[in-house]
Design brief:
Helix content: 25-40%
Number of helices: 13
Radius of gyration: 21 Å
Order of helices and strands: EEEHEEHEHHHHHEHEHEEHHEEHH
Distance between the termini: 14 Å
Shape: globular
Strand order of the largest sheet: 6-7-8-3-9-10-12-11
């Protein structure tokens, strides 16, 4: 899918700031973030653990914990500003039926005391009231089970979560999300707890379901390799801010921010036999304090002097590709990305 700027925006984040009050201190988790999500696209938000990916997307559903709050900014969806929502009653109109979420551990999402069929049926009754009668609801559940690749739905309907493997449980969680009939599906590290083979199956399944159910999918992951073949666009997040946003081709084949270079260098397929895999040295900055300059500068061996002094603005590389790095300033020295990154095309990462 090629993203054009005149496509319909289904959700728009504008200069969003999210803070947490912890032990009497304020942690600035999301720092002045803006993002447009287009109807029908798959967009991946990538970055290390703790970069703010889950906090950002949980704010779309009012799922911030009691210590978290939106201090400023907008989340525009369906003509309304979700950032202004306060009550559970307001959020219930959004959760499930408009925006649904798949969590990384399916066992925490499923009720061990209820059958698989009951749990999917509950979502059908709640979000599709036009489907009436036990048989109609049951048939709908059978259809969802088949759509997510679970055979013998009549048998599986009566079974409990502990009777399913990890991959099968994740398929059930996806079926429950589909039964809510959402427009946007957020997938929060949906394959982290699964082995590599099952990961690939689940990602292929989500790709197929996006088309069948006309979904807009937002993936959250720390692993760029997981979304290489499924994301239309990639938004790279570091220390609560987006440092680079572009199409998958932009980010994989023409990355511009040093942090994106570092993430790509960490892909196992770039490793050389007999050599240690690349790791990003150091740790992200403390968000209890104001971040000065480029947040990644202390971990960037090729940082410029200005990186430690001033935060870079957004530089537009193309209509679809933007990055926040002083390397894009016309006055900056011309630095080539690491050699492994330059050879990514030869690896057919997006093939």
């Amino acid at each position: 899918m090629v993203i054009h700027m005149n496509q319909e925006v289904i959700l728009s984040v504008r200069e969003l700031n999210i803070k947490f009050t912890l032990r009497g201190q304020e942690l600035h988790a999301i720092r002045n973030v803006s993002l447009d999500i287009y109807k029908g696209e798959s967009i991946a938000v990538v970055g290390e653990s703790g970069s703010g990916k889950s906090v950002l997307t949980k704010s779309f559903m009012g799922l911030l914990d009691n210590n978290g709050f939106i201090s400023s900014g907008e989340i525009l969806y369906g003509g309304k500003d979700l950032a202004k929502y306060k009550s559970e009653k307001e959020w219930q109109k959004i959760r499930g039926g408009e925006i649904a979420m798949i969590m990384q551990d399916p066992m925490t999402s499923l009720n061990p005391l209820k059958t698989i069929g009951e749990q999917i049926a509950e979502a059908v009754r709640l979000h599709q009231p036009d489907i009436k009668g036990k048989e109609a609801v049951r048939d709908k559940v059978y259809a969802y089970l088949q759509d997510v690749g679970i055979r013998k739905p009549e048998l599986r309907y009566k079974q409990y979560p502990h009777e399913f493997s990890g991959g099968m449980r994740q398929r059930v969680v996806i079926a429950i999300a589909l039964a809510c009939n959402p427009k946007i599906l957020i997938c929060d590290e949906p394959t982290t707890a699964l082995d590599v083979t099952i990961q690939a199956q689940i990602m292929r399944l989500l790709k197929d379901l996006k088309v069948k159910y006309d979904l807009t999918i937002l993936f959250i992951t720390h692993d760029l390799g997981v979304v290489a073949n499924i994301a239309d666009r990639v938004a790279v997040m570091y220390a609560g801010d987006f440092v680079e946003i572009g199409t998958a081709e932009d980010v994989f084949y023409d990355p511009r921010h040093p942090y994106t270079w570092a993430l790509l260098s960490s892909l196992p397929q770039l490793g050389q036999k007999g050599e240690e895999l690349f790791t990003i040295k150091g740790t992200p900055p403390s968000l209890y304090k104001a971040v000065k300059g480029d947040a990644f500068a202390p971990r960037n061996p090729r940082a410029l002097e200005i990186d430690f002094l001033l935060a870079p603005p957004v530089f537009e590389i193309s209509e679809t590709h933007k990055a926040k790095t002083w390397l894009l300033d016309p006055r900056a020295p011309k630095l080539e990305p690491p050699e492994g990154i330059r050879n990514l095309k030869n690896l057919e990462v997006l093939g």
